[in-house]
Amino acid sequence: MPQQVNYCVDPDWLPYEAIVDGRHVGISADYMRYLQRVTGIEFVLLPTESWSQTLTALQQGDCQLTPMLNRSPEREQYLVFSDVYFRSPNVLVSLREQPFLQSLDNIGERSLAVPQGYRLLEYLATHYPEIPIVVVQSEADGLTAVASGRADLFIGSLYSINALIQQQALYQMKIAGWVGLEDELRLGVITGLEPLIPVLEQALAELSDAERIQIYRNWTQIEIIDQTNYRLIWQVTTAALGIILLLLLWNYRSSYFNRKLQEKNQQLKQTQARLERAVNKLQFLSSHDPLTKAYNRNHFDQSMQKQRRQPNSDDAFSLIVLDIDYFKQINDQHGHLVGDQVLQELASELMQQVRDGDQVTRWGGEEFVILCQKTSLREAKVLAERIRHSISQQLFAGSVQLSCSFGLAEQGAKEPLMACFERADKALYQAKAEGRDRICLADPLVATVS
Fold first, then answer.
1. Which helix (H) or strand (E) holds 20?
2. CA separation for the pair 384, 352 (Å, rounded)
3. pLDDT for 91-146, tens place per residue?
4. What three-state secondary structure class fits 18?
5. Residue 65's beta-bridge partner residues?
6. Distances in Å between the alpha carbon of 196 and those of 4, 61, 64, 156, 204?
């Protein structure tokens, strides 16, 4: 096992990682310090000037490791990857006058800026070859391309885009859509150092949820940009002093200056309000589905990392997974616009039926998940039956009458929430196989004896 490993990072990708004054900062920097402390391996930063230069250094073997990147077929030719240890959603960004596009499927002939060397280039070439691509050097360059009109849209990570918008005061930008492809960030080491992967994964496995959350918060706290116009303050102060000195002679002009000052203060308040609305919208989009306003999969994944039922605890926790029956027929017969309205109305109905503390998540397509706090399997079945009955009693958009299939599971002691979800999802498929429009319960989790 090597005692020293050279590593490279993306020098301009905050809050994930960057090089500032020759020093590695960001989320990956905190993880690297932790790994060095736990494994005893000395990790030495080899600075680069761009992400493309970092990838070249890895291909040539000058760098032996990079701490935070996505896996792709091209990169697998010269790198070996760890398991995913950090996830992040990708979004589309446009100027405010552009329509909300929702996803890559609706881009049409609009041009899309993508940073050189990003996995997104491979993904778009494979799945969306018809989209016009504008290759840029960095995410900051991509946002500038949209602001200057060189590109219609930019695609990138939500957290880094949020940081750049604040740093560069690009408040003419907006989130124009949600990209299904998530950043699934891993450690990558060059071929020949494969034995290093299990050592690093073991160290990451020992990192507690609280420590992971603290690293995330260290670098993703949203700061309101200081909008103070010091030049304006100086001008107003100077004018005020002049007014005081010449008050007897210029009294009739005092009301004029006072009105101008009030207008400037009102402008500052309006600017602050717009900024706060933009920040709130970014925070909402990072955890909610833009179509239905239910929680999104990114929020559900974060909840899964935190939720674990403790041994001997009386607090039960259950999952309800439901899927609209024959939803494709609705889209085929009534069109996708009606289909979207049906999804919106169903999500609204679900959020009205659940109790305080329950969370409704759009898992994907026509599938939803309800996280039920302090709820046994029997109580979850009562809730599911109430929802099923309510859906059957109403007409949705386009005079569509719906039915849904349900799969339920109660989380076992020490059982990861994802394992509980898989059991509920299996019960959902059983409900569909038995004829749909019904509720099926997952088999109870069998406790193992140690």
1. strand 17-20
2. 13
3. 899 998 888 887 888 888 999 999 998 888 988 999 999 999 999 998 889 999 99
4. strand
5. 7, 189
6. 11, 15, 11, 30, 13
